[in-house]
Amino acid sequence: MAANGTAVGQGACPGPFLQEDLFSTSGGFIGKTFMWGALATGWGVPAIGVTLALVFSGVSFRFGDTCHINHKNSLAVLWIPLLVFAGITVITQFATFGYCIKVYLASLVDDSTTTENSGLPSYTSSVRGTISPKQAYRRVKRVMELQWRGIVVVLLIVTDVIFFAIIFVFMDDIATNMVKNPTKSTAWLGCLIQTNGNKNKCLSLAQHIVVNQATVMAVLLLLSVNGVWVLCLLGRFSMFTGWYELIRHRVKPNTDHTTLAGC
């Protein structure tokens, strides 16, 4: 307390709160626990979800040459859990963001309290007794600089998941209704018979019974670029240099020890 009070009394500002501080105790134990827990969750939950979907619903070529999950139990084992996890992701991200803002703003009051308890004469105790709008803005801006990439990635992925789920559930319902009520496709089937199976000549008759191609292509395009967004927003140049150094040392072993031994 005295050391901290002296530092504040001399006009030094406390360093910003960093997420790395949460994992710096116990010789990195918390960091390793978090790392392995994140890896186990990131790989384990999707693996369990795919297994449940294959066991209780299964897949088949339902949309032309596209393999898709069957209608039976698909809502319970895939679509609803997918949307639930998407909602949990959004809540977790913004809860973390709100907590960081709370800690940043609370640190201003904590700094003022530390200065007053130190008993050192300093005008900062009167100036920093309350949080000014400018101070709050600077703190919130700092949090945004640390968190905006993660927020953007979460929003992009969740938007894709919701769009994907809505479109494919709608396609699934259309295919199921066509089986139950085949009279809706009578004109299209008759056209196929007359044209010897030339579907291109009958596309105009099928537009009202299927999701349009542009919508499906938009879903597939959004899903395909998710990895690109993650790389652009969360990637670092040091990742490429790290892989380069790892591969270079594996291909070309380090000869420093041999050179020193020869000298």
UniProtKB/TrEMBL annotation:
This is G-protein coupled receptors family 2 profile 2 domain-containing protein. PANTHER family: G-PROTEIN COUPLED RECEPTORS FAMILY 2 PROFILE 2 DOMAIN-CONTAINING PROTEIN, G_PROTEIN_RECEP_F2_4 DOMAIN-CONTAINING PROTEIN. InterPro entries: GPCR_GPR1/git3-like. The chain crosses the membrane at residues 34-56, 76-101, 148-171, 214-234. Keywords: Membrane, Transmembrane, Transmembrane helix.
